[in-house]
Fold these 4 entries.
Entry 1:
Amino acid sequence: MTSSATTPADHPLRARRTRVLRARKVARSLPLLPSIVLIAIFLLGPIISSFYGSFTNSALTGAAAQNPSFVGFDNYVNLFKSPGFPGAVILTIVFIFGSAVIGQNVVGMLLAALMRSGGSVVSAIVGTAVVAAWVLPEIVSAFAAYAFFSEQGTLNNLLSLVGIDGPNWLFTFPMLSVILANIWRGTAFSMLVYSAALQDVPPEITEAAEMDGASGAKRFFLITVPMIRGSISTNLMLTTLQTLSVFTLIFVMTAGGPGTASTTLPLLAYQEAFKFSQLGYGTAIATILLLVGAVFSFIYIRALKPEVD
């Protein structure tokens, strides 16, 4: 009878093998060390500095500008007591869901499907028209959107041709205007991501489902979507984080108004930090914004992570 028990002589051999494997892992990680250092300096460093600044009374002017003091959680207490903070949070979430989660992703997917099913001419026209808005500098896109939605702008001039007297969109529907403008500007990214993802879907699978009688909607939701789930997760996270930090577009179009009707968290942080000179208070708002982005990222990673067999 042969025993499978490990002899004492095997223990040094196993320990040596473990040390060799660890040394190999360390050696493979060494080329990544410069990147880790750069990430720590240029990404983690500002985050830590910003987080600490949110616990001070730092300001642009006065004694606190030269010698800020540590005030603990006072900025956060005052922030949560502020009557304008809950509204800014709600408007930020509305802006994210309207223009990123729903708008850019749905429109981007539809455009990608159109480019795939259409001919080369259709793909070229659609791709050029959509990408043109994306490659424009944000300030140029913001002024173009302002000119389109303003009271005497392009949209109302077009509506007047069919006998409709359009409202002042930036005053009457400020959030709707900035949501549509952000969809127009950012959809190209989602379209390119989904176009690349759809190219990786084997056509024989969808053709087999079509031969079995599956409709176009069933083929899309039961076959295509599960196969590009990873791309959907990644795109949702990226578009959400990009939309969460949108400032210039809203600032140029509405400046957060009328009143606070379109004041999202980035605009509230700007107003408190640079308009009212309360850098510590504005940094606390920016920290909350960072936490909101982390929550969205965690939800996407957990809910849409591809299943592992």
Entry 2:
Amino acid sequence: MNKHAQPSEMTMAPSTGGTTAGYMPGFGNDFETEALPGALPQGMNSPQKCNYGLYGEQLSGTAFTAPSHRNERTWCYRIRPSVKHSGRYAKIDMPYWKSAPDVDPDVISLGQYRWDPVPHGTDDLTFVTGMRTMTTAGDVNTQVGMAAHVYLATASMVDEYFYSADSELLVVPQEGLLRICTELGIIELAPREISIIPRGLVYRVEVLEGPARGFVCENYGQKFELPGRGPIGANCMANPRDFKTPVAAFEDRDVPSTLIIKWCGQFHQTEIGHSPLDVVAWHGNYCPVKYDLSTYCPVGAVLFDHPDPSIFTVLTAPSGQEGTANIDFVLFRERWMVAEDTFRPPWYHKNIMSELMGNIYGQYDAKPKGFVPGGISLHNMMLPHGPDNTAFERASNANLGPDKLDNTMSFMFETRFPQHLTRFAASEAPLQDDYIDCWDDIEKKFDGTPGKK
């Protein structure tokens, strides 16, 4: 089998509006796109007969009666309706892809943990078979919480397709180049970019340059959205125009194919005789997107004090409790540090949220040693953490002129639920057993002399 993909044989719509070829800008927009002229009905959703002999079908991402500002659906005009992509199902085993609750009584999740990059190994792995779950939180059956994964991909999915009925996936590449061929179009994804693949959307993943490794946040709850900026106003952070949705693309291929479905934490497959990526035209607001992390514009203090890390939120998935997220996706990238008389790195703290961090490239300012690109750390809810002694001493005694924090990009999957380690994370992934020791050399500095610092 050819590990790396050849160009996809998908018929694609032309680019529109002067945008980057193959994409349309905006987040949460109502898009319309067609790969063949006249394939998209105008003025109605469900004509008696669609052009080209297509079938009209709606993909709903929310309940029909959701408030209009949250209602998400897409009308698809496709060669076959989805019922023709669904046959009798057989259960299959994905031993390394776990769903919440996955609480192993022999695994201790209470602690501060850090891992080196998960190695690739020698097996041919696709995006699906190479998924390695590190933590789970909440409950997939009640649609709350999340799971955090590492993906290892060396081989393209050939005549094999996947969708999750459980969740949307936030994909964060760390190395390698992927092409995600979806029902609604093609996304090419590189490190320093992210993609959101909606729940229920069928796709396959091709490896353009490998081996590929990255991180995945599996969101069981409400969809990711842009955070409210509050007093920050209309600009900075992640701007809607920088999110890109693919134009329509389709395959008309009659070949034996396999469709794998994740449903309530279990995996099933069905055999069909054609490609399910057969949507010729579509319109709506329930669709995949990609985003270039280099377009994220941080905001921060320009006089004194270190703000809460919530100012670095790229996307948030709300919970039922206002202001407390099911998941926040937070980005720590290059930025200027200028605050006066201020300890500038992240301070010591305990948090009601559970924080899983990943390093995309460079060095994280609060941990100058050991947190390498591809690495992961976990600081669970209400467990103390913060800078190691080297970072503390350096920041406490630094000359506080303007300082560019450069060559750094790390992120955080943060959730209101405790994150439980999987057995893979506890016993197979390259856990740094000495991580907890990074705080051993913090000194007692207390001196009761009045006015002494």
Entry 3:
Amino acid sequence: MKLSRPQEECGVFGVYNHPEASNLTYLGLYALQHRGQESCGIVSSDGATLHAHKRMGLVADVFGNQEIFKKLPGRSAIGHVRYSTAGASVEKNVQPIMVDYSRGSIAVAHNGNLVNAQLLKAELEAYGSIFQTTMDTEIIIHLLATYKTNSLVDRIVEALKRIKGAYCLLFLTESRMIAVRDPNGFRPLCLGKLGNGWVVASESCALDLIEAQFVREIEPGEMIVCNADGSIESLFPFKKIEPTPCIFEFVYFARPDSYIFGKNVYLTRKELGRQLAREYQVDADVVIAVPDSGVPAAMGYAEEAGIPFELGLIRNHYVGRTFIEPAQAIRHFGVKIKLNPVREILEGKRVVVIDDSIVRGTTSRKIVKMVRQAGAKEVHMRISSPPTSFPCYYGIDTPNRKELISSSHSIEEIRRYITADSLGYLSEEGLLKSVGSTKTSFCKACFAGDYPVAFPKPADLPQMGLFEEEQKKHD
């Protein structure tokens, strides 16, 4: 299935030193389901042994039987929801990864993507490593095993010094939980407190569900070590660089009720809409959103423009990732099963439609036609981010560049393709102003093509051609 918008990456959640660790991790993953719907898993520790349950599917389906939690005992657990950005969507790639090696057992959950994964994998295989998955996360496990020091923290640090890219990681052993965020801070990660225990989550909304106290965000380049005595250590073992958190987390990926990168997502999205209205006002009768991600921006646009906001498109929340199309063709079936226009709101009106992004343009085209068929007199499309012209290599599943419509078409050409009366994208300056980036240099590679972490050069892969092959997938 071709992507109609960028897809969520992954979500990680961990609980340390709590009697209901596995149950709480299940709830945390439930709150992070928006970050990945392909598979999920939990690994728990009872102090002596690690226990795992992981499958393809949604959290509620994989952990729907209460008996499962009897097989996940212990006071510590880590969990993962996955949308594959590196490695196939198959059972063997479900995280967390759990292995036994000479120093005991260890499990790893990873949100992100390593840009030098192919280089490291080729090197490790040349020295005899055998990989059981196609995920870049397994590379970290193999690197851990190559270092001889007795200190787990030191082995993790040495391993992570070899990798490049985006990572929020949770490690679980029989007695410890360790969380790490990459020096660029691409993805969000936060620390919480629950009784005498500690909680780590990709987003703060997961802490809210289990009523954990939000302590703070884990800093870029920071390692949090949870020890058996209940204490935690905060380490900064990597060379300090200028953080570049992903600005698209604000636009689309994070849940609106989360607090990331120092800001509330909902309020930030409303500000995106307000700024969009300042840049692209139009005489109109009603503002509607493409639900759900476009709703806060549409509310902000409506407030700033002084135009009423209405729920002109209703989303069916019970549509899964796949569905059976009817034998008799129905035009725009894929969109119509998810969205339905409210004719009484749209008929005879000049309508502003707010969405967060346009990827290929096919979905936007269908939405515009759907709104017209509901009787709209005019349809003006407004996008609460700049044109997405470049693929992401840091953990977001975007199409290759030639399939991104804005990489090869002007805004006017895109407008004609989606059949809107007008089209306006939020400017890059407006986006940065809306998120208040005076002290932060966000990663905006998907808009500008300026990648903050360099890729391996072809010369780094002699006689293998792996880098060229990887680039062909994206260019």
Entry 4:
Amino acid sequence: MARKFLYFVALLIVMVIAALLALRIWSAELTRFAFVPRGAFEVQQPLRAGVYDDPEMWVSRPGTAADPAQYRPEGTPAAPRGRAFVFFIHPTSYLARDHWNGPIADKDSRYRTALFVRGMASAFNGEAAVFVPYYRQAAFGSFLVNQPETLQARALAYGDVRAAFRAFVAAVPADAPIVLAGHSQGALHLLHLLHDDVKGTPLAERIAAAYLIGWPVSPTRDLPATGMPACTAPAQAGCAMSWMSFADPPDARLMLGTFRAEPGLDGKPKGNAQDAGPVLCTNPLNGGSASSAPGSANLGTMVPARDLKSGKLTKLGIPARCDAQTGLLMIGEPPDLGPYVLPGNNYHVYDVPLFWANVRADVARRSAAWLAQRPARP
């Protein structure tokens, strides 16, 4: 009987090892199989004109009941409100593969959207107001393949975001500074907004800062096309911050492979891994002034509860270093923030919570710098 039990234990160990080996070798293939939509792309009409005048089309905006963007984790110090208005584009929350674009009314994605906004957009609520629109986001699986449906899904989502942005601009005071932020898919759409609706327009003078978080940005093919420089000082206004957080040892092949296969915002190819160079990385612990910062510079990490519905601001001493070869933001040994770390030690979901207090301070400094420079502006 004891021998049979030992054989059973040995078999379980072999099965676990085999499963882990298969996940390591075929993780990309298994991820695509689980999430890439199977059906045809569904052509949909643009949203009707004026639809974003409806408060129901916003996850967050002034007057929203139980606004997730206004959440403040335990331990958040009191501070005076800033004067900037924030437009935040939420990351992908539609994980199903039934459609290439998530329906705005989908209950599951709305639930996850609120969680993401609570954990990320809340870092920006020290300013005057945070606006976060619902939109027909491209499905998570659409970012795992390079197919015609991928571009179609993104274009549909971007059309919604662009309409929401124009409604936001029309709604906020004409002389107020604006902070733009997006995470993951939201950062991709923000890149295009900067290129299409901001660069070379009077609106560009109103941008206190842009936060392109959790999406790979090419310093040569993407950033110049936005009209914004990378931030190189903590009190610099009118610049862009960008980072993607990974712990040791990192594996970003799936994300960077898809990124390099696509042309840049300027329409030109990025090249292969050798030619493309590192992605843009601005260290959130020091406002981009240096590539590396010790854990002592981390003002506070928002450690979320297991259900992500709440969090506590805690000084965990998590450092940050922009890797010179890849541009990934390395945070050292994997910290325990919860069960949602992606394969390859990818802390994608925690890109903002890792540096929550620093992001909050960064936004305040750049908004104040914009206001200080305002008399010199035309």
